[in-house]
Amino acid sequence: METFRYYLALFLTGTVPAILVYLLLLHALIGVWRRIGVAASQIFLWTAVLAVFLWVISATRDFALADFGPNPIFFNAGMVCLAMAVWLRVKVSRSIGWRALLGLPEIAPKSYSQRLVTTGPYARVRHPRYLQAFLA
Length: 136
Fold this sequence. Notes:
Helix content is 76%, strand content 0%. It is mainly alpha-helical. Helix 1 packs antiparallel against helix 3, helix 2 (30-36) crosses helix 3 and helix 4 packs antiparallel against helix 6 (128-135). It is flat. 11% of the residues are buried.
C-alpha cells in the first residue's frame, strides 16, 4: 500500500499541474497557435506538459517519500475527489470528443468545426475541465 500511495502521489502531483499548464497555455496563446498550426502547437504544448510533469516530480520526489502516517479521513476525501474528477472527465469526453479535449477546434476552427456544447456537464458548468482539474 505504501508503494501504491507513493506512486499515486507522484503521478497526481505531476499530472494535475501539467494539464493545467496545457489548458492555460492553449487559451492564453490561442493567436500564436493559430498562426503556427496544429502540429507545431501540439508539439510545443505537449513538450511543455512533459517538462512541467518531470520538473514537478523531481521537485516533490523527496516530499512524497515522507510518511505522514495514514489518515483515513484525508485519504477517503481524496479518493472521493479523485473519483468525481474521473467521472467528470468521462462526461466531458462524451460531450465534446477527443479533438475538442486537445483544443483543435480552437487552434484550427475551419478544419475542426465544433458546435457550441450545451449538454452534459456544459449544461451546468461553464468550464468543467477546470473543475475537474481542481477536484483532482
